[in-house]
Amino acid sequence: MALFFLVLTFVLHLLFMNAMLGSAIMAFICELRGKKAGPSKDISTKLPYTIAFTVNLGVAPLLFLQVLYGQFIYVSSVLMAGFWLAVIGLIIMLYYSAYIYDFRFEKMPGARTFFIGLTAILGLIVAFLFTNNMTLMLRPETWQEYFGNRSGTLLNLNDPTLWPRYLHFIVASIAVGGLFQAVLAKMRKTLPDRQYKIDHGMRWFTIATVVQILVGFWFLISLPREVMLSFMGGDAPNTVIFILGLAVAAVSLIFGITRRVLPATAATIATVLFMAIVRDLVRTEFLKPVFHPSDLKVAAQYSPMIVFLIVLVLGLGIMAYMLHLAADSGKEAK
């Protein structure tokens, strides 16, 4: 049950995180290239929302990860404690920078590039630190490096999967960010330059998806041989889920090329779901020699789970209602 909620809540977090980081990168590049303010202005008004949802929806999967893999994530977090604790400050700075970019968009045109650039760069740093922790927890054999560096500044830089895994998430965020902008434009019938913004977002989505597939194969071949082969016929369930993920990714690319926004969105959500499952399977394969979640002793406590489900449903409902109010008030269209 905990594994199910780990994947579910991680998918929700991932969708908002990708929309947030990808949109920030898009806006930064548009500002650098001196593009007209339309796409950047639209992005500026969405960033505070997406950051808030990203942070809040990131709590649950982290807690479920600690429940299932506590002895691994705690150790890796301690090994890079200095960087891990810095994430809090980096996110606060990111939030402030995004708010300044939004609320001072018209008043500080000369500083827009700086603040959206700062937002994007801080987001990239946070993502890099998370990738380090999530990979370091999978390599207990490297933890002895602590005895040579007890300062809490260890990073997993020698791991061959670190960079392809990191880029796999970053390029995916650009794809989802482009799709997010296209979806918002599609939903607003009276938006100025509506078709241009739809095409602009879908173009980002399509190009990034092509790159994402290539980076995904790099990530695959960077895995240890036994882990990689488990997704290439060595393990039937792993292989089937991996192939399904590739299939829906290809479908989303086709929809992107043909500019079919809503079908591309559905295919992308399915792709994120399958890839989140694959990510969990990769973690399981890495840790198989020393641990499996089924090794944990289960003491059923249903009341906390019921409370969690109630709060989760209420929270998602309140989030949807808040977005509805924001849209109705016209704040997002300012």
UniProtKB/TrEMBL annotation:
Keywords: Membrane, Transmembrane, Transmembrane helix. The chain crosses the membrane at residues 6-29, 49-69, 81-101, 113-131, 166-184, 204-224, 236-257, 264-282, 302-327. This is Uncharacterized protein. The lineage of its organism: Bacteria, Pseudomonadati, Thermodesulfobacteriota, Desulfobacteria, Desulfobacterales.
